[in-house]
Design goal:
The chain is an alpha/beta fold. It contains 10 helices and 32 strands. The chain has 4 domains: 108 residues, Immunoglobulins (Immunoglobulin-like, Sandwich); 97 residues, Immunoglobulins (Immunoglobulin-like, Sandwich), CATH 2.60.40; 105 residues, Immunoglobulin-like, CATH 2.60.40; 169 residues, 3-Layer(aba) Sandwich (Rossmann fold). The strands form 8 sheets. Strands 1, 12, 14, 17 and 18 form a 5-stranded mixed beta sheet that branches. Strands 2-5-11-10-7 form a 5-stranded mixed beta sheet, with no helix packed on it. α3 packs across α9. It binds 2-acetamido-2-deoxy-beta-D-glucopyranose (NAG) (10 copies). Its main location: membrane. It is a single-pass type I membrane protein.
């Protein structure tokens, strides 16, 4: 048995898109475009070649069509049992042999008309180990997810004696059995296979095969189709890009462009604006809609319409603006609502809070720097009111303790305690001091004096010097120290420490002094010990005055009239 098969390579020119199917149109109705038309057949298979001419004589009744081999004057025989013969306008090879490859001519002749066409037949062999030749395939396309159809082309001529089409068998990649997939259906009598729910796995080489019987001999006829699966183009439901049933805040009188954008898989959607159940240009004559359309990636299209509200009016806040479009039989709607901007209370609150916190910190900062000046200024300016409040049983504003000088000591604590201190605090500021060694009467018992006077004082000023070897405070007056200690503890009298120079080592100091230093700190004297006048408004004296009680009575000017005598020893 011999194999024959006729194939037409330039199939792309005879594919027609019907729905989602590529259908091969019978050859005689196409192929006219080619100058030398190419035909292919597998060696050993039969083929019947049609003349690629459609002319009026064909449609009219009377014409003679004659085949010639490559310019030969002798027509191809019409003997039915010749391997190559012409019959009913077709050129038959039963079967085709490799040497049949070459040029053939068909001549159409009617009474007053003649036409000639040349064809080029190629007889090919299968690729090694395959049931087809990779270069001799029909190309067909189906679309994923759709139902697709594979058609076994050009079988019309191969009818048996009873005019029946022989049974067609299918192979995929030269293997049978793929039809067991439930998605695939053999379309009887149509020489085709239906594929439902096409997937990319369906692409491949499909070979259809049938047996043609001619003059008692059987011949194979096969076609191979290369099936491509096209991804279904995104055919999404159109949807609003904007608006999305949202509100926007716009100021009265401001300019707003009202845009409505719809994305879809098709062109030609026409969205439109409505408000208050009428078109926007009826709602307001100045609202002129403008339609636009542009392409988006992935084959999508954007359809839009917009209009300007050049000055937002009060009535614009009263309604929702609806954008509609119609797709299929459905109407789609989305709206946008204009709102007047709310007073931004939160913003104010946050802003106010921040400035308040800042103000507080700033005030604290200023207060920390100028605390002393502020308090002193306050005491001065509010003196009359303070005077009334501050009444207690005390006689002295401060009790002054200082180490008595010895020879060979650098620090003139005597001068400080007996001259400078009274000069400033008493004479200039009007305080009343008790200075041991100035104000005690000779012969009085030191302990009892100290105890009594401390209790009568509002403050205790202790002058410290950094020379423990030279002298220590209250060195030989432990009773006095005790008294002072108890007074401090019991009466809560405030102690003001004044260092006449930096004291490196407090360890040698009594415990109570260390405690006070740690708790309240000390004020260091940086001035000299000359007896010139010292100003009460230096930093040092301001610190001291700050620690002193506010003055009880009298003003500075008054007090200047009552200077205390400085009884220096
Ligand atoms: C025809 O095809 C069948 C199956 O493909 C094969 O077995 C047989 O040998 C072929 N016949 C000829 C004459 O090539
Ligand atoms: C066709 O015939 C011409 C001469 O008649 C020859 O030269 C040429 O090679 C032939 N072509 C084919 C394809 O047989
Ligand atoms: C066709 O050929 C036949 C026989 O050769 C002849 O009688 C007839 O006139 C031809 N017809 C045309 C239209 O040439
Ligand atoms: C052939 O030509 C004659 C006149 O010359 C005309 O009447 C006739 O219609 C033509 N036939 C065809 C088929 O064109
Ligand atoms: C006929 O087709 C074969 C194969 O495609 C090609 O090699 C050859 O050149 C063609 N001949 C003509 C005359 O077009
Ligand atoms: C179809 O056959 C060709 C060889 O002609 C091969 O390269 C290709 O991989 C086959 N296609 C599939 C899907 O197997
Ligand atoms: C094709 O897909 C649809 C929906 O995905 C499904 O309902 C149907 O059963 C599938 N058909 C086949 C033959 O698999
Ligand atoms: C609507 O589409 C146009 C055109 O692509 C674009 O310029 C505009 O920003 C879009 N508007 C909105 C609100 O998405
Ligand atoms: C909207 O106003 C702008 C200028 O603000 C103008 O360019 C545009 O053409 C106007 N569009 C319509 C539809 O009136
Ligand atoms: C927007 O509002 C319209 C009409 O009120 C409604 O039909 C639509 O479903 C809404 N869309 C969304 C996304 O809520």
């Amino acid at each position: 048995m011999e194999k024959t098969s006729g194939l037409h390579q330039n199939m792309t020119s005879i594919f027609l898109l019907i729905g989602h199917l590529i259908v091969v149109i019978p050859l005689f109705s196409a192929a006219e475009g080619c100058i030398i038309c190419d035909y292919f057949v597998l060696v050993g298979e039969p083929t019947a070649i049609t003349c690629p001419i459609i002319t009026l004589p064909v449609l009219h009744s009377d014409y003679n069509l004659t085949w010639y081999k490559n310019g030969s004057a002798t027509p191809v025989t019409t003997e039915r049992d010749a391997r190559i013969h012409q019959r009913e306008g077709l050129l038959w090879f039963i079967p085709a042999m490799l040497e049949d490859s070459g040029i053939y001519e068909c001549n159409v002749r009617s009474l007053n008309h003649s036409n000639k066409k040349t064809i080029n037949l190629t007889v090919f062999k299968n690729d090694n180990g395959l049931c087809f030749n990779g270069r001799m395939k029909f190309e067909q396309k189906v679309t994923s997810t759709n139902t697709g159809k594979i058609i076994c082309p050009d079988l019309e001529q191969f009818k048996d004696e009873d005019n029946n089409q022989p049974e067609v068998h299918w192979y995929k990649e030269c293997k049978p059995g793929f039809l067991e997939d439930k998605r695939l259906l053999l379309a009887e009598g149509e020489n085709s296979v239906l594929i439902r729910n096409v997937t990319v796995q369906d692409r491949g080489n499909y070979t259809c095969h049938m047996v043609y019987t001619y003059m008692g001999k059987q011949y194979n006829v096969s076609r191979t189709i290369s099936l491509e699966v096209k991804e279904k183009p995104l055919q999404m439901q159109p949807e609003f890009i904007y608006p999305r049933n949202n509100t926007i805040e716009v100021e009265l009188g401001s300019h707003v462009v009202m845009e409505c954008n719809v994305s879809s898989g098709i062109n030609g959607l026409i969205p439109f604006w409505q408000v208050n159940d009428e078109d926007v240009d009826i709602f307001d004559k100045t609202y002129r809609e403008q339609f636009y359309e542009e392409g988006l990636p992935h084959g999508l299209a954007l359809s839009g319409t917009k209009f300007n509200i050049s000055k937002v009016k009060v009535k614009d806040y009263a309604h929702k603006f609806f954008c509609h479009f119609i797709y299929g039989s459905q109407e789609f709607t989305a709206y946008i609502k204009l709102e007047r901007p709310a007073q931004n209370i939160q913003g104010y609150l946050i802003g106010g809070g921040v400035s308040l916190v800042f103000l507080v910190f700033f005030t604290l900062f200023i207060y920390k720097i100028f605390k002393i000046d502020i308090v002193l200024w306050y005491r001065d300016s509010c003196h009359p009111f303070l005077g009334k409040k501050a009444s207690d049983e005390k006689i002295y504003d401060a009790y002054v303790l200082y180490p008595k000088n010895r020879e060979s000591c650098l620090y003139s604590s005597d001068i400080f305690a007996l001259k400078i201190l009274p000069e400033v605090l008493e004479r200039q500021c009007g305080y009343n001091l008790f200075i041991l060694g100035r104000d005690d009467l000779p012969g009085e018992a030191v302990i009892s004096v100290a105890d009594e006077k401390i209790r009568q004082s509002r403050r205790v000023i202790i002058v410290l010097v950094p020379e423990p070897s030279c002298y220590t405070i209250l060195e030989d007056e432990s009773e006095k120290q005790l008294a002072m200690h108890s007074a401090l503890i019991q009466d809560g009298i405030k102690v003001i420490l004044i260092e006449l120079d930096k004291i490196q080592d407090y360890a040698t100091m009594p415990e109570s002094i260390r405690y006070i230093k740690q708790k309240h700190g000390a004020i260091r004297w940086k001035g000299d010990f000359s007896e010139r006048s010292h100003s009460a408004s230096t930093r040092f004296w301001k610190k001291v005055r700050y620690q002193m009680p506010s003055r009880k009575s009298g003003s500075l000017s008054e007090l200047h009239l009552l200077p205390k005598d400085l009884n220096l020893p």
